[in-house]
Amino acid sequence: MTDIRFYHMITKRLEQALPELLAKAITVQPRIVVKAGSRERIETLDSLLWTFDPAGFLPHGYIRDGSEADQPVWLTTEDDNPNGAKMLVLTDGATSPQVADFDLCCELFDGNDDESVAAARARWADYKVAGHDLTYFQQDEQGRWVKK
Hints:
Elements: E1 3-9, H1 14-25, E2 32-35, H2 39-51, E3 60-61, E4 73-76, E5 87-90, E6 104-110, H3 114-130, E7 133-139, E8 145-147
Parallel strand pairs: 1-6, 1-7, 2-4, 2-5, 3-4, 5-6
Antiparallel strand pairs: 7-8
């Protein structure tokens, strides 16, 4: 079964939390798919991943860039895995019927939005029924992830 980790963002927004998560994850997961809720969000994340770290960037691409199979991080709104990733990151409430095709799935959700929290709880329940391994992390006041 897939290892599914929920990340409850409270003090940091997706634009801060996602690059940090990807920067750590790519050291052990050389291929990652990030699914977002809209093309506009993909374009925002694309710009962000080039600029969030003044000393470097996270190598990535999306449909506009091509070379899908060569992209370490693939940004998408679709249920595709053109780079052969073993890790899936879901943002903006995006879901995927292909979660079981990945070793690891990380769900990032906005803890300051009641609808987002309710939807995450519903997905947790669905994943639990499906038999996936579930872990929950919440940000503390300093923005660090604490396993609950």
